[in-house]
Design a protein that fits this description.
The longest helix has 13 residues, at 76-88. This protein has seven helices and 16 strands. It has an eight-stranded mixed β-sheet with strand order 6-5-4-3-16-2-1-14. Strands 7-8-11-12-15-13 form a six-stranded mixed β-sheet, with no helix packed on it. It has helices at residues 76-88, 107-118, 126-134, 136-140, 185-189, 220-229, 263-266; strands spanning 11-15, 18-23, 42-48, 63-66, 93-96, 143-145, 149-153, 162-167, 170-171, 179-180, 197-200, 233-236, 244-249, 276-279, 288-293, 320-325. By secondary structure, it is of the alpha/beta class. The mean pLDDT is 94. The radius of gyration is 19 Å and the shape is globular. Helix 1 (76-88) packs parallel to helix 3 (126-134). This is Calcineurin-like phosphoesterase domain-containing protein. Pfam families: Metallophos (PF00149).
Length: 326
């Protein structure tokens, strides 16, 4: 390993209907599983978040999922950088949401607060931003922007109809965009429908939400609601240092209790060379959720390997690849 190229580890989580590549050598990433003899196929989801107008290499796949903080502060210039990158990615379907840094997309809030953030560049025009997100070029690139919306799609002509709900909100944090007070969380989160995929910018409480200061700012109301929603895949971000993935088995004998999981529970030491393969057991008939914190900005304990800081979206902070059986 050179000091300029921190090494990749190989961390894979496996269960009968889910395969998750948390970390991998890009050139050696396996393809998604082949279709079963009965024709049942798999869909590959590539999960990113908190890219903040950065561009980096991500694996190909059927669907790209972006869980917010597309930009630094939501300027037109920021969005131009982000969208040029997204337009050029090969994924046929790209589903994106905003985060607390995408200030201009929270239009009512931005009208009140823009001078705090954009005093030096001036108030930003939302029209060209929305054109980038929803206009002809975005549609041609397969980009779907969701703001508290449900969307359904297929990646195979005769395949599964996938459903996804995307929400940009996260608990209040110094009055940034799409923040909510915890006492109003129930009103917001209760409207989330049951879907195959849930995209939220903020994580649920005690699920990949621990900060460098050992705070757990994830949403407690969302955590409680997960027992009812039980999506196949829940992708969040927001807490950069909590990047990680976990396959949870929903056990009715435990009242469908959600997991308590942080990234060091799975990854452990960052200085181990051996590959990690986690086989997720349990009754094959039980529902499972793949939980992902897909933040790509290196931060926290995982952002140092032998004293070397990984590149953006590099070792420890790669796009998380999730293969789901249809």
């Amino acid at each position: 390993m050179s000091k300029e190229n921190p090494y990749y580890r190989n961390i894979v989580l496996k269960s009968p209907r889910e395969v998750v590549y948390l970390e991998y050598t890009p050139s050696l990433l396996p393809p998604k599983p082949a279709a079963d003899p009965d024709g049942t196929r798999w869909t590959r989801f590539v999960c990113v978040s908190d890219t903040h107008s950065r561009a980096f290499s991500v694996p190909d796949g059927d669907v790209l999922l972006h869980s917010g903080d597309l930009t630094n502060t939501g300027t037109v210039s920021d969005f131009e950088k982000t969208m040029q990158w997204l337009y050029g990615l090969p994924h046929p379907v790209k589903i994106i949401i905003a985060g607390n840094h995408d200030l201009t997309l929270h239009t009512e809030w931005y009208e009140r607060e823009y001078e705090r953030f954009h005093w030096n560049v001036g108030k930003q025009d939302i029209k060209p931003i929305m054109e980038m997100l929803k206009g002809a070029r975005a549609q041609k690139a397969g980009i779907v922007y969701l703001e508290d919306e449900k969307y359904e799609f297929k990646v195979h002509e005769n395949g599964k109809l996938w459903s996804v709900f995307g929400s940009p909100w996260s608990p209040e944090f110094f009055n940034w965009a799409f923040n909510y007070e915890r006492e109003t969380a129930e009103e917001l989160v209760s409207k989330f429908p049951k879907t195959d995929i849930l995209l939220t910018h903020g994580p649920a409480h005690q699920i990949f939400d621990r900060t460098n200061h050992d705070d757990l700012p994830g949403c407690q109301t969302l955590r409680a609601r997960l027992s009812e929603l039980r999506p196949r895949l829940h992708v969040a971000g927001h807490i950069h240092e909590a990047h990680g993935a976990h396959v949870h088995v929903w056990d009715p004998a435990d009242d469908f209790a959600p997991p308590i999981i942080q990234n060091d529970d799975i990854v452990g030491s960052t200085n181990v060379d051996e590959p990690i393969s986690v086989e997720v057991g349990g009754d094959v008939g039980l529902e499972r959720t793949v939980f992902v914190n897909a933040a790509n900005w290196p931060m926290g304990a995982l952002a140092r390997r032998d004293g070397v800081r990984p590149v953006f979206g590099g070792p420890g902070f790669q796009a998380v690849v999730v293969d789901l059986k249809e």
